[in-house]
Write a structure and sequence with these properties.
Length: 196
């Protein structure tokens, strides 16, 4: 496979975001969003998915974190899509069941080109660190839409919100790593339509 790297920059009146992702990395990351807990989650996604990830986001945090989290999802999804190119020889599907202390989270991914998010969880707390927990769903929704990804996240068990959130991001990293990996049995794309 060629170098599968996506670099996307997006500038609006609310945010300035630059994301670079290498799908064939080692899990190195440099994340700066201005939201400490969000940085921590993206670092976990990068490390456990073995993606090299750079995120620099400047947003209107004096309002709240919504635009920063949502727009980071948009740009990361676009960068993943750019890195995948025509999706030749990838497995397309990925899934992972990740335990983290009391939390158990299932994540499944289909890189089908059709966006869909099934996010089955309501956090019992409003904030984890400096991140509004409602923004976790908003991030994954924006990412799934801009990447053209079918994404399911199911919390099977969990008490501690920090553990649940971290299990989500790590499970997503593991599932996406599986989905973007090469399968030598695949010629072209894995679809009866001939396109993804």
């Amino acid at each position: 496979m060629s170098d599968r790297t996506g670099l996307i920059e997006r500038r609006t009146k609310e945010t300035e975001i630059r994301v670079r992702i290498c799908l064939d990395g080692t899990g190195n990351s440099d994340i700066r969003t201005g939201i400490g807990f969000f940085d921590h989650m993206l670092q976990g996604f990068s490390r456990h998915g073995f993606f090299d990830l750079e995120v620099e986001a400047k947003g209107d945090l004096e309002v709240d974190g919504h635009h920063t989290a949502e727009d980071t999802g948009i740009v990361l999804g676009q960068a993943i899509s750019a890195a995948l190119g025509n999706k030749d020889r990838i497995r397309r599907y990925g899934h992972f069941l990740l335990p983290m202390d009391d939390a158990l989270v299932l994540c499944a991914v289909d890189l089908c080109g059709r966006p869909y998010l099934n996010f089955d969880y309501s956090f019992p707390v409003e904030r984890i660190g400096d991140l509004d927990t409602q923004l976790i769903r908003e991030f994954f929704y924006a990412l799934s839409w801009s990447a053209g990804m079918n994404l399911h996240i199911k919390v099977l068990d969990g008490i501690n919100g920090h553990h649940v959130a971290e299990a989500m991001f790590k499970a997503f990293g593991k599932a996406l790593d599986m989905a973007v990996s090469e399968d030598p049995r695949v010629t072209g794309v894995l679809s009866t339509k001939g396109t993804l």
